C-alpha cells in the first residue's frame, strides 16, 4: 500500500468495525453450536457430492489471491497437510477441501471431480476415486501432485498417475476440473473451501497470455456466485494496488458483504508500512472496508518448511510473532481476535455455516421444484415396447376417435372447434350482407341528399350503407338497361331478365366469402386432428406417419364433398326463386316507398300525408280551406267520388317508375336470399366436413379397416409399419 494512496482513503472510527457477524439461528451453548455448524457443513458437502452445484448455488468459500500471496501456506496450516510445492504457480486446478471434526483417527480421501472433457467442453459431472484413503498426512502432497497431473492430462486414464507419469508433459496448463479432498479427524475444524489458482500478473515463467485469461475466467466463475464467500489473500510485502485479486473480488462484491480479507506475510511488510496494514486490519479505510472484516496470519517461510516445521510449531511461532512484533502486539483485544490462523478458520466456519442455514430453505425449495420437473419428465418417457401390435393399434385408434368425436361435437372451452369457428362465421355473414345492391334513386352525377339506412332495416344486425361507389347503380342506369331489354313485350312490361341480371351480379360475389370460410374451417380441422394424431402416436414414429396419411386422405375426401355442396348452393342461387312470397312482398313494398321518397319531384310524400289527414268538416287551416275549395269545384263540375288523396295524382308521372320497381324487387329478393345463403353455407360446412368425419364412413371405421387391410387395394396398416416401428420413440 503506497503512501500516496493513504490520504485518499476516508478513515472510519475504531468503533465502526462493521463485521456483521452471521451465525445459525439456533446457536446455544458451545457444544450445540458446534454440532449445528457441523450439520450445516455436512449438508453443503453432501449437496456438492451429488453434483447439484452445477444447477443450484451452494454456499462455499473460494480462496483467491495473486501469485505468491501465501495461499498455499495458509491452507496447509488450516488443513494440517502439506501441499505440492514447485517453482511458479503451484495450483493448476481448483482444489476442494471439505474438513470435518471427528473423534475417529485422521483420514484424507482424494477424488477427482470432472466437469469438462479433454477438449474443455462441459460434460455430466463425474466423481472418480483417486487411490485409497490416506492415513498419514505426509503422503497427501504426493497424492495431490499426482491428482493434478491426472487432471492436466485428460486423455490418459487417471489411475496411471497413481504410480507413474512423473515425466509426463501436461496437455493443459490449467483446468476447471477439481481435485477434491475430504479430511476428517480430531484436530480438524469444520470448514469447506475451494483453493483456486493464483491470479497471474503477467506472462512469463511458463505462463502465457492464454493462461492469464483462463485463470481469471476460472476465478470469476466462482466469485460471481452470490452464494460464494470470497476469502481474499493479500500479502503485506507487495503494494496493495498491485495485487489484482482485490480488484476482481470488488468487481463481484462491490459492497464487501461476502468477502473476508486475509493479510499474509506480516513479517515481510516494508519498514514504515506496518501502520497502514494495521489500519486496514481495523477496517478503517472506507473504500476497503469489509462487512466480515480483515484478518492477518503468519505462516512459516521457505527455510522453515524445508527444515520440516510441524503444524503445531508453526502455530506456536505465529502466536509468538503477533504477541511480540510491533505494531501487531499493541492492538486492542477485539483486534487481537483477528490475528492467527485459528481465529480466521473459526470465523470462516461461522460465516459459511450461517450462510448455509440462511440459504437452506431456498435450496430445499429449488431442489423440490427440480424434483417435480424431473418426475414430470420421467412420466413423459415412453413405456415398454408393446408386445401386441394389433391391440395397440386398436387402442390408439379408439383414443383418437374418442377425442375427435368430442371435438367435432363441441366442447365448452374457449379453444373448442365451434368457438374457434364462430367469429369467422360472423365475418362470413357480414361479408355477404355487404354485397347488398347499392341502388341510388337519382341520376348519376346527382349526389342526392338524405340517403340513409332505411328505418325498416333497423332490426337487422349491423345495418350499414355500402362502402364507396364501386358497386353503385344509379336509377338512370337501371332505366337504360330496362329499355334495352324490351323486345316484343306489351307496353309498360319490362323483361324479368333485367331483374335477374342484377341478382346474378350479387350472387357472383358470394363465392369468395364462402370459399374463405371453408378454407379456414378445413385448416383448423387439419391442424387439430394432426395434434390428436401426434398426441396418441408420437411415441411410434412409423405409426404416426401411416395414421397421418390415412387421416389426411379421409379429410381430403370430406373436403371434396363439401366443396361440391358449396358449388351446388351457389348454383342454386343463380336462378332467383322463393316461396316466401309474403316476406318478399313486404320488403318490396317498403323499398318502393323508400326509393320513391327520395324522388320528391314526382312523389310528394309530405303532400300525400297531409291530404290523408285532411278533415273536410273541421279543418280550419289555410291548407284545409284550399282542399275544400278544390273539392267543391269538382262537385260544381259534376265530378264526384273524388277523395282528397286523389289530388296527388295530378303530379307529373315519374319517368323512372319501371326502374324503381326493378330496384325494389332486386333489393327485396336480396333480403330473402342472403339470409338463406348465410345460414346454408356454414350449415353445409358443418354437416359435410366437420360432422361428416364421424358420419357414415366415419374416420374410426376407416382406420379400423386400414388396420386389417379391408379396403380394396390397400396394404394393412399393421403390415405397413416396420417391426422397429413398434419400438416407442426414445426406446433402444
UniProtKB/TrEMBL annotation:
Gene Ontology CC, one term: membrane
Gene Ontology terms for molecular function: GTP binding; GTPase activity; microtubule binding
Region spans: Disordered: 1-24
PROSITE patterns, per the entry: G_DYNAMIN_2
Superkingdom field: Eukaryota
Family annotation (Gene3D superfamilies): Dynamin, middle domain, P-loop containing nucleotide triphosphate hydrolases
InterPro entries tied to this protein: Dynamin, Dynamin_GTPase, Dynamin_N, Dynamin_stalk, G_DYNAMIN_dom, P-loop_NTPase
Protein name (Swiss-Prot/TrEMBL): Dynamin-type G domain-containing protein
The keyword Acyltransferase appears for this protein: no
